[in-house]
Design goal:
It is built from four helices and no strands. By secondary structure, the protein is mainly α. The longest helix has 12 residues, at 86-97.
């Protein structure tokens, strides 16, 4: 382990995927596999959408998206946070606002 890693990073446990059968005769619905191929219309839409720049990494700061969201919601770009899914946004939020090891309380879900 690197001496530069944070305590949080040192405690992280990597994701271990479930069994991956080698014979390819099983469809694993629990891992979102699908027994059917994509629709020809979906494949056509993907082919139509693919451009030469698809092979490049996107802007990690998501500048165009941040600008569009800021315009749409009347905010400054500095007020727009873009993440790679809710898990990443929640992870960043928890790391920013909560002390590691401190209890976090959540309200009960109600039907009121």
């Amino acid at each position: 382990m690197s001496k530069y890693w944070s305590d949080l990073t040192k405690r992280l446990v990597p994701y271990v995927p479930g069994e991956q059968p080698k014979d390819k005769t099983y469809i694993k619905l629990n891992t979102n596999e699908n027994p059917y191929p994509p629709s020809p219309r979906v494949l056509a839409a993907i082919r139509q959408a693919v451009q030469a720049d698809l092979r490049l990494y996107p802007d990690p700061a998501c500048q165009e998206l941040r600008q569009a969201a800021a315009r749409r919601f009347g905010r400054s770009e500095r007020q727009v946070f873009i993440g790679n899914g809710s898990d990443e946004i929640l992870a960043f939020s928890f790391a920013a606002f909560f002390t590691p090891g401190a209890p976090v309380l959540f309200p009960d879900v109600t039907d009121i």
